[in-house]
């Protein structure tokens, strides 16, 4: 998606990393690029607002569900493998558990 305007940071880059911004999982310098972009691009700001509202709704409705520790550690291990660029095993990392990791990932709880 692009608004058709020229920006220092392209709309596709902003929208491609929107959840990292929402979850504050990026350096402050990257966050400031997003904030500048939102000031000049109303379509991206609207998308940000929508995703932020959905995230709050999910937290309110599902935020009380406890995630078993073994599932959390397996999922976090797989995320770290992906982030580091290492090869990710094709087999199910949750083999032997009753947990389904194909469902939408839980968002981190905010304090």
Automatic annotation (TrEMBL):
Residues 87-111 are annotated as: Disordered. It holds the Pfam family zf-HC2. Residues 87-101 have a biased composition (Basic and acidic residues). It comes from the Bacteria. Residues 11-44 form the Putative zinc-finger domain. Signal peptide: none annotated. NCBIfam families: antisig_RsrA (TIGR03988). This is Mycothiol system anti-sigma-R factor. The gene is rsrA.
């Amino acid at each position: 998606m692009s608004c058709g305007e020229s920006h220092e940071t392209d709309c596709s880059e902003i929208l491609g990393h929107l959840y990292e911004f929402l979850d504050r999982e990026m350096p402050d310098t990257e966050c400031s690029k997003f904030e500048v972009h939102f000031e000049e691009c109303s379509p991206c700001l609207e998308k940000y607002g929508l995703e932020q509202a959905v995230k709050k709704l999910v937290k309110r409705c599902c935020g009380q569900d406890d995630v078993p520790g073994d599932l959390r550690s397996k999922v976090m291990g797989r995320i770290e493998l992906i982030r580091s660029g290492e090869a990710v095993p094709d087999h199910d990392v949750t083999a032997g558990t009753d947990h389904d990791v194909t469902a939408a990932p839980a968002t981190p709880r905010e304090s």
